[in-house]
Structures are given as C-alpha cells and as structure tokens.
Amino acid sequence: IAIRESAKVVDQAQRRVLRGVDDLDFFIGDEAIDKPTYATKWPIRHGIIEDWDLMERFMEQVIFKYLRAEPEDHYFLMTEPPLNTPENREYLAEIMFESFNVPGLYIAVQAVLALAASWTSRQVGERTLTGIVIDSGDGVTHAIPVAEGYVIGSCIKHIPIAGRDITYFIQQLLREREVGIPPEQSLETAKAIKEKYCYICPDIVKEFAKYDVDPRKWVKQYTGTNAISQKKFAIDVGYERFLGPEIFFHPEFANPDFMESISDVVDEVIQSCPIDVRRPLYKNVVLSGGSTMFRDFGRRLQRDLKRVVDARLRLSEELSGGRIKPKPVEVQVITHHMQRYAVWFGGSMLASTVSPFLDC
C-alpha cells in the first residue's frame, strides 16, 4: 500500500480536513509500486498482518474499487495463514462486521483450500484432502501437513525464504555487477527479472559451465525506462536467472542463519507426522503460491525429496544387514495451472457451495 506522507505543518482545522483527504489518497498492489512520491508500506509481513489500520484501508479499496461490491449484500470467505493467533482472527472479524457490516464471514485455512485446488491437476487420480502443502508467496513460505482436511499444527514448519527474499537477492547480485540501473528502480527491476527470466536449474555447477561455454545462448537482455529522465536502459541477465530461485535449495546463499534446503524441510515435516499418514503425504506434495511458479521447481523438489527418502530406505536396509527390505515410497509433487492462485481458486470452489455459510 502506498500512502502520502505530508511533512507540512498546518493548524488543527486544516489537519482535520487533510486527514479526511489522506484517508482516500492511497494506492494498493502494482499501483502502489508506480507511485514514487508516496511512502510504500507493507501491512502484512511474513504472512502475518502487522498493521490493522493499513489493512482495513487495503480491504476498503479491494471491496469498493476493485470488486465494486456493497459488503452489506454479500457473505465473505477469507483465508488465514497457518498458526494464526485467535487475536488476529478476532481483529479480522471485528473489521469485517463492524467496519464493513458484512452479513456473514467464513475464515478458512489456506492449506486446505490449496489442496482442493490441486484436484484440477492431471497428476491427481483420487481427490483427497490429505497432503503436504508448500505455500510460498511474497513474504513467507510454509510446509503445512494436512490429514483428512485437518491441519497437523504441531508439525508445520516456517521457511524464511520467499519471493521478496529472491527479489532482494537478485537486486544485490545486480548491484555487485554495477550494471547501471537507476537506484530508485533497482527493486522494481529485480522483481521484473525474477518474474520474466528466472528458473530452477537441476545442477548449479553444470549451469555455471553452460553459461560460460555459450553466454549468447543463455544470457538475456532486460530493457527498462528511467522513471525520471525517461531514457531507456538495458542490462544483461546471466547467472541471476538461476541463482535467484536457487536460494530455495541453498538458502545459505542469501541467509547464513538458515541452512536447510526446502526438500530437507519437507522431509522433516513429514517424518514428524503420525506414521500412518506419512506415505500419503509423500504421495501428495502440493505447490501453492506465486513463488512456486519457477520453471522446473516441482521437478527439482521431487527429485531432491526422492533422493532423501531413498537414502533413508537404503540406510535402514544396511543397518538390518539386508534382512529388512523396506517398501519403496512414492514421492509425487503436484503442479497445476491454478497453482499461482491455488488458495483463491480453492476458496472460490468452497464459496460456490452454500454449506460454509449455513451457520452464519
């Protein structure tokens, strides 16, 4: 959200008038990024709402400007992150009922909705609400195990790597190369490069060699416009294409305090779950959120997770002296065309039925 911050000193009467104007003078989403004279703020950090006043203004514009709806005439289904506190749920309900006067509100868990959305994938044979959801957006990534539609809360793990971290990492790589990006546009440029050119590579060492042997084939060129001078600028995008999203699998590149790859975290989460649901969880690893949309993300995660599982089975067999032959574990990562908006799509499937609102 982008809001105007006025430093001009005025009397109390003018301040009251300006306060009413400022309440309407703000932008959200992509429009907020394009307003250099406004202060950009994030009401949500790492998946948790931190500024409820800003969040209320955000929802006000979503409902009235974009949905063009009268909230008094509609039931609302909203989502919450895993391990959301009761206080946050209470604040959300208070805003929706007291500020927007909605007739009914249903708060759903994001992971369950993402599982329902995965039913659109060709990889899914039997529709089930048992699986592990890798939900990665702009601010936070979670590995959330779900059994028969119920989240196993004690086994959820938080991964401090998400889309914004990848953007910052690419921005840092570009700064180190001194490629001549206008300073005020470096973050926006890094985000555009991330969304347009980045992908997951199978082997980082081989990928470096590939770029060194034939840079013309792999190096892309990004063209932008200076927001102040309106002059064009161009930069070559090379190693950044695969190094950015690689921090999911080598987080130490960007965060020295966190060393576990996403495949290791997923394996730990499943191993901490009750033994009778582990195989169904390995078989139904569902991706959700914009930061899982990198090309070959699902393939790399499935390969690395399969290696971890197979290594454990081989170790068990060796420790038993060959007397025990563990049954192979099927590992499958589900990708689908609604993956980016999986939570929203699952919510739309649920909201289209009457059942969630019967008790409202």
From TrEMBL:
<keyword id="KW-0067">ATP-binding</keyword>
<dbReference type="InterPro" id="IPR020902">
    <property type="entry name" value="Actin/actin-like_CS"/>
</dbReference>
<dbReference type="GO" id="GO:0005524">
    <property type="term" value="F:ATP binding"/>
</dbReference>
<dbReference type="Pfam" id="PF00022">
    <property type="entry name" value="Actin"/>
</dbReference>
<protein>
    <submittedName>
        <fullName>ARP3B protein</fullName>
    </submittedName>
</protein>
<dbReference type="InterPro" id="IPR043129">
    <property type="entry name" value="ATPase_NBD"/>
</dbReference>
<keyword id="KW-0009">Actin-binding</keyword>
<dbReference type="InterPro" id="IPR004000">
    <property type="entry name" value="Actin"/>
</dbReference>
<comment type="similarity">
    <text>Belongs to the actin family.</text>
</comment>
<keyword id="KW-0547">Nucleotide-binding</keyword>
<dbReference type="GO" id="GO:0003779">
    <property type="term" value="F:actin binding"/>
</dbReference>
